[in-house]
């Protein structure tokens, strides 16, 4: 008798490769990018420096950062064809589909699409880092019935995004909170969308195909889409006093509470304390009743979930509230995740190519035994 091999559904707990990009140190529950703890990167670095670190393995020196920033700013503007294509997409087009379509279009326009060299892929990655915010901001304004605002090369990456969305800059605290969210969202080892990018890359397909596939994976509410679902949930509950009652009903209905739980972290997502602290700052600086109510509800739900299920929030939980408080509409939330995670995805694409092996797991068959085609079908 053949023994059925052990099946690891969802690849839970399955180690498939080595990676030098990031790791979660369980003992200290800290996430490090190329050896640097995200707490330190969030406290001392810009998002541009973290992008550089993920791609090149080291933090840039002053000269390297200056050149990197100049290249990123020069790459921001969309060409007219791309702008016209995106403007033609249906108004109801899901923002993640807008980004996915834009990346596909960039690939179709790139004559070096199939050049899989590290240098070529780093150049494509920087162009996507620079252009995705322009696409996301234009789509944000299109939903408000407003014309796009051109990127401003005199502004840093985070400030420029607010400029393109709102035509104005918020307080430095708000910009810094946004930048911290980008640093925290940038990379998280073999999560579903990053692994998707590695699978596509492992066939020696191109970077645009891998990123398009990763955007498709991130769109799902069990992964990136959770930050939007968190805000819908807070709006659905409304008042802090209903938090416990709402949660009891939701858990009784076996509903998944968005923004909670994690496949890897079982004692709390190491990124949450930093994001929560930045969000708390937003609430105090917002100084309005609505922000205070949402913060109270956010806290009540978190405590209720911890006491009832012992399940901790993940990064999407504070991030969803923070993005609302920054003035972004909910459909923009997951595109913000893409703008950040493009750095981790492309770092993994390059790493996969450096020591590639086609990714092709097995399944154990449980269908009908072998049988002959019946006479009447011949
Ligand atoms: C991200 O992988 C990454 O690194 C992802 C990410 C990244 O940076 O790339 O961190 C970003 O995607 C964060 C996760 C965002 N997703 C959500 O917030 C959606 C809600 N979360 C759940 O769907 C869930 O927690 C997962 C999918 C995130 C992880 O689930 P697992 O590891 O597959 O665990 P499970 O679904 O098997 O749940 C284990 C138990 C179950 O109880 P039982 O059915 O065994 O009784 O815990 C329960 C689950 O019901 N549970 C939850 C829950 N999460 C787990 N119950 C209610 N609400 C939840 N959110």
UniProtKB/TrEMBL annotation:
InterPro entries: 2-MeCitrate/Citrate_synth_II, Citrate_synth-like_lrg_a-sub, Citrate_synth-like_sm_a-sub, Citrate_synthase, Citrate_synthase_AS, Citrate_synthase_bac-typ, Citrate_synthase_sf
CC annotations in GO: cytosol
Pathways per UniProt: Carbohydrate metabolism; tricarboxylic acid cycle
Catalytic activity line of the entry: oxaloacetate + acetyl-CoA + H2O = citrate + CoA + H(+)
Keyword Phosphoprotein: no
A Pfam family: Citrate_synt
This protein's UniProt keywords: Acyltransferase, Transferase, Tricarboxylic acid cycle
Molecular function as annotated in GO: citrate synthase activity
Active site: 262, 316
Highest taxon in the source lineage: Bacteria
Record-annotated membrane-spanning stretches: none
Gene Ontology BP terms: carbohydrate metabolic process; tricarboxylic acid cycle
NCBIfam families associated with the record: cit_synth_II (TIGR01800), PRK14033.1 (NF010636)
Family that this chain belongs to: Belongs to the citrate synthase family.
Protein name: Citrate synthase
């Amino acid at each position: 008798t053949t023994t059925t091999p052990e099946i690891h559904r969802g690849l839970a707990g399955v180690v498939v490769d080595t990676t030098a990009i990031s790791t979660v140190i369980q003992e200290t529950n800290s996430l490090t990018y190329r050896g640097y703890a995200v707490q330190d990167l969030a406290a001392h670095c810009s998002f541009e420096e973290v992008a550089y670190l993920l791609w090149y393995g080291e933090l840039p020196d002053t000269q390297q950062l200056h050149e990197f920033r100049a290249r990123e700013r020069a790459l921001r503007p969309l060409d007219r064809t791309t702008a016209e294509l995106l403007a033609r997409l249906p108004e109801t087009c899901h923002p993640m589909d807008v980004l996915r379509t834009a990346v596909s279009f960039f690939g179709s326009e790139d004559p070096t699409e199939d050049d899989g060299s590290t240098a070529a892929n780093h150049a494509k990655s920087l162009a996507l880092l620079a252009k995705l915010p322009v696409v996301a901001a234009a789509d944000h304004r299109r939903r408000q019935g407003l014309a796009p605002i051109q990127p401003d090369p005199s502004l840093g990456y985070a400030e420029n995004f607010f400029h393109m969305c709102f035509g104005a800059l918020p307080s430095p605290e708000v910009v810094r909170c946004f930048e911290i969210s980008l640093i925290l969202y940038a990379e998280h080892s073999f999560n579903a969308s990053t692994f998707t990018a590695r699978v596509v890359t492992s066939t020696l397909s191109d970077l645009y195909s891998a990123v398009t596939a990763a955007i498709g994976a991130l769109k799902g509410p069990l992964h990136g889409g959770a930050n939007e679902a968190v805000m819908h949930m807070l709006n659905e509950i409304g008042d802090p006093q209903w938090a416990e009652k709402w949660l009891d009903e939701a858990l009784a209905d076996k509903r998944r509470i968005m923004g909670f739980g994690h496949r890897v972290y079982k004692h709390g997502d190491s990124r949450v304390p930093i994001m929560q602290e930045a969000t708390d700052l937003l609430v105090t600086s917002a100084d309005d009743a609505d922000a205070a109510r949402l913060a109270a509800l956010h806290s009540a739900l978190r405590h209720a979930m911890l006491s009832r299920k012992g399940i901790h929030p993940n990064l999407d939980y504070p991030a969803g509230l923070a993005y609302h408080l920054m003035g972004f509409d909910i459909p923009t939330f997951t595109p913000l995740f893409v703008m950040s995670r493009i750095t981790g995805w492309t770092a993994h694409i390059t790493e996969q190519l450096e020591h590639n092996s086609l990714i092709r797991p097995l399944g154990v068959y449980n269908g009908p035994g072998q049988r002959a085609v019946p006479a009447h079908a011949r």
